[in-house]
């Protein structure tokens, strides 16, 4: 059987999944998992991309070994990661320093500087992207103003998944779903807006040619094939929805067009799928963004801080010596009634790493609400706050598009969180369908399988495969949010 390797990198870990498609059913097996630990260099926060690449190679070797053991052939490899971050390559193709992490503070105040020459409204009319401080465009302007001169000597800019694809295949290309998050793309033409790049004072010579999901980039390099044990059948590297949310949305098991999705992980991406971008002033002021999706679609979505609040809280409690389990805390939190302690997860104070429980307590105190007492109450406050943020986002989608939403699909790690799913159903007043968990990896494999001819059809057909392959859980809204 032909099998497909999905490299799926998140903000805290990476994994390699092996996908199989047979008789209209898709299966996934995790063959490797490795940590993704950002590091501080010279006071700045960076990604350890070399360490991630080592994890990728080890994972691909494990995938190839398992495929051989089953008599299968590893046909192709796809890569999806987070968005906005990039690396710069020198003339010899080498990486000019470790890529910056989007949570690094170097972009502070950059957006305000851009505003003086290009008003927010005009910029949104050009790129359709919500003006978040870590957007690639602001990172590049911060880089230019730093005096480091890496942009002056760079030959090419590649987003994180594109760098990994280049290291595997030797081919430099930019995949469009991740490129759309840079703020430098024309979202209708799905190509670089070179006039905007010039107006921002950036040099478009470093921008790579763009490819759509499903494009074959090329076979792995001979040295890579030897490294991972595939010299007899070198797999192809295939462009998928390299922004992990694009892949996750491609795998949403929706039966019709009137759905909202929540891709729930470190971030929660709350949105809907449209045939074209919507760049109205109402969309901009509501904090929504237009990102490229698979098969020419647009993902109209809003970033909500997500499980980052939980992850940082758990880190703090463990650092304080508390013996806490997230599953136990979620059970305890589910037994509590609504505390009335609802924060806005998107406030800038919650973006950096640090003592999250203290920040949550301070925000509750500042707004005159009950301050959560102990870890279980903090978790309940976060769950109520996320559900309320989801409600506001779904309501905005209906108002902005004029199209009703019939169902909310939660994919990713949050689909396993029964408390969050139940509270979301209650808050939105809509049925919530939870699952599958491995949304990004599934969308990754689906696009590869279609490129190889193992699947056919459009997104509706791909989603039907997902619906046929996994047990989904539905949460019906109740009359009470307690």
TrEMBL record:
Similarity annotation: Belongs to the FGGY kinase family.
GO molecular function terms attached to this record: ATP binding; rhamnulokinase activity
Domain Carbohydrate kinase FGGY C-terminal: 260-452
UniProt cross-references to PANTHER family, sorted A to Z: SUGAR KINASE, XYLULOSE KINASE
Matching InterPro entries: ATPase_NBD, FGGY_C, FGGY_Carb_Kinase, FGGY_N, Rhamnulokinase
Record's keyword terms, sorted: ATP-binding, Carbohydrate metabolism, Kinase, Nucleotide-binding, Rhamnose metabolism, Transferase, Xylose metabolism
GO BP terms in the entry: D-xylose metabolic process; rhamnose catabolic process
Species of provenance: Rhodococcus koreensis
Pfam families named in the record: FGGY_C, FGGY_N
Official protein name in the record: Rhamnulokinase
Carbohydrate kinase FGGY N-terminal domain residues: 5-249
